Amino acid sequence: MFRTKFWLAAIGIALLLTFAFGPGVLAETTVGSTSGKLAVTPAGYDDMKSVLEKLGVAPEELTFDQMTTAAALEKYDAIYINCAGEAESPSDEMVSAIKEYVKNGGVIYASDFAAGVVEKAFPGKINFNGGSVSSAHIGSTGDVAAKVVDSGLASVLGQTSVTIKYDLGAWVVVDSPGAGTRVLMTGDVPTTGYDASAYQNLDYSDSEKLKEAMEKIQSGSTTTSNTIKDKPLVLTFSEGKGEVLYTTFHNEAQLTKEVEAIINWFGIRTRAGRLASATRELVIKGDDIALQEIVDGINKGETKTYYFNATGKADFKLTLNFGGSELGMTITDPAGNEVISQDVQKPPYTTSVQADEGKYKIVIEGKDVPENNYPFVLLASGPKSAAADEIIVGTASDNKSGTSEKSIFQRIISGFYWAVGIGVVVIVLIIILIIVLIVRASRRKAPVAQNPEEKKE
Predict the structure, then answer these.
(1) Which of 190, 253, 296, 298 is the most exposed place for a label (fewest CB within 10 A)?
(2) What is the distance between the alpha carbons of residues 291 and 379, in angstroms, rounded to a whole number?
(3) How far apart are the C-alpha atoms of 299 and 229, rounded to whole Å?
């Protein structure tokens, strides 16, 4: 009897621990990374190291020769590949290492000439003008009126258009996004055609010599000038567990306040890449898709305001995810009524909103953050019919985007579903054990027939 009670108690404790700590494990595994190590390649036409340092982040410098094995890259949460000649023609070893790094959850930022890395490591994700990077060096100098077509980025910037200055010609022009690739900004691109043979013997290892050669090509071999309408300027895609952010422009000569905000956002967005992936994995399930993704940074005591445009045809959810500490979130409906006010200390935090038609105002406050420009993700999710703005974040059924819906088996072995699965198994075992004990007890109480010989006596 003692052994029976012991096992009943043990199973009961296991059941309690499963449900008590199961959700806690989910919160830990889905928060994502915001404070890991960052690396940046040497400055070329780009200098993302200076951008990150202004944001209060000190990345390690990583040369192209050091980027030849996945083991050398895996200690970094994100790697920034500056626009430089060496990025145009990466070695096979570097391409293989980056491909493995991203597949395992790493995040890459690449700009302009780093298209060579993107093309070789992730073929088909971005379609470059003319079919290859080598034929895509047709971008001309001048101002481009860029449209911010991603509603999340537009909410961060507070505007849907910005002027981008391209001060150097022969920049890489993108033709179209590949399967599963999202476009964040577009614009009408000024182009100049050049003699293709002039590119065959360029020395990409020396940025200064390359710059001089480009200027000679542009001044002496011009054949055509044209403007290509509505081409992607900034794109992002998932590969395996990781992400890549590619931009045709960089931070050289970008002096306006609006463009500086975009460049700073590149730094924060790449830094929070793993956090964003973890948040999407958490909320994209069933019929719910990611309606709007906001990635931003915040300081202690600072407040930031964003908007979600709802149709009122379906309810939506808001998920706030960050590395820890404390953020406040206040949601106001289109009529000006405060519907939710919550201080969040244990992310991720998800709340459901019964939607009316119109713009919802979301205010995030930095209650207690460990550093300036502390990254966070605010993700609106729900059925497609809930969002009035164009949805380009991705859907649960898009297998090529890296955000595909998991199978039932995958759900059971991960996070909350794992905890529920174990709990159900434990409950079934308890029921079986109780039945066995009842059967045994009934057998012991059953009357025993007397011996006939004993009756006679």
Answers:
(1) 253
(2) 7
(3) 39
